[in-house]
Amino acid sequence: MSVSYESRYASSPQGVKGYDTTQLRDEFLIENLFEADKLNLVYSHYDRFITGGVLPVSKSVALETIDPLKAEFFLQRRELGIINVGGTGTVTVDGTVYELNHKEALYVGQGNKDIVFASVSNDNPAMFYLNSTPAHKAYPTKKIGTDDVEVIELGSPETANARTLRKYIVNSVVDVCQLQMGMTSIKVGSSWNTMPAHVHDRRMEVYFYFEVPEGQSVCHFMGQPQETRHIWMQNNQAVISPPWSIHSGSGTSNYSFIWGMAGENLDYGDMDVSAIPDLR
Predict the structure, then answer these.
(1) DSSP state of 26
(2) Ranges of the chain with pLDDT below 50
(3) How far apart are CA 125 and CA 210, in angstroms?
(4) What pLDDT score was predicted for residue 266?
């Protein structure tokens, strides 16, 4: 089979307080998203959020359903967001071909049956990063190019958090049920993302770190604001953030990350900010 998946159960903040490094990484870190000609998925019980990666090199790869969904096909009761972080590729949705260049996205609505990923060049294959959530309504499939996104400049060099945030799959850009996805790029000379940190108890989130230079790392911070933990992360790795947890990181170099959210609402600004001096 070209699909591999694992399930991750939800953890309480009381339990996570006692985790050692290995337990913390086993529960929340997603290390091996991209393998040649395979579909790798992690099914989280936080909001039934699926994180995945597809790296088509020598052949196309289909989006196959997995047993936890108990569905005839993957998107029978789900919606899907795709951002290409590799070379140019195509996503075929029920016979319609969408070409995605580097950092272009595609939203695929509930009910589409046949989803196939391919690369235009085997020498520079596409790398499709996937997020999927349950859906209650079928919305149209839509491509989001780099000129279609909403851009926000945040932070400053003085606080080492100057960054550019791009909203790709949000309800002001595309009709969605609950999935939200975007990309944030840290500027040269800065290191922090999402600082001041926040939680949003109405939604969970997944961060996918990429464009981390060779030999560099990102230290991702999680946990309740008064009980934080950290996970050291490498290029092309993702991390699950529970609704009760902050999600912030600092790199030894500048980098980019894709954020994906799901939960109670579609209000991007719905967050409870933690004052920096109050973090523990």
Answers:
(1) H
(2) none
(3) 16
(4) 83
Report the pLDDT value the prediction gives residue 70, as an integer from 0 to 100. 97
DSSP H helices in the chain: 13-16, 21-28
In angstroms, rounded to a whole number, what is the distance separating the alpha carbons of residues 128 and 61? 11
State which amino acid sits at residue 197. Answer: A
Counting runs of H as helices and runs of E as strands, what totals does the chain give?
2, 24
DSSP three-state, residue 147: coil
Give the pLDDT of residue 269.
Answer: 80
Q: How much is the pLDDT for 67?
A: 96
Q: Tell whether 220 is in a known binding site.
A: no
247 is in an annotated binding site: yes
Residue (of 29, 123, 48, 39) closest to 82 by Cα position: 39
Beta strands in 19-88 (DSSP E): 29-30, 39-44, 50-54, 61-62, 78-84
Nearest CA among 134, 167, 108, 169 for reference residue 49: 134
Q: Is 230 annotated as a binding residue?
A: no
pLDDT at 271: 87
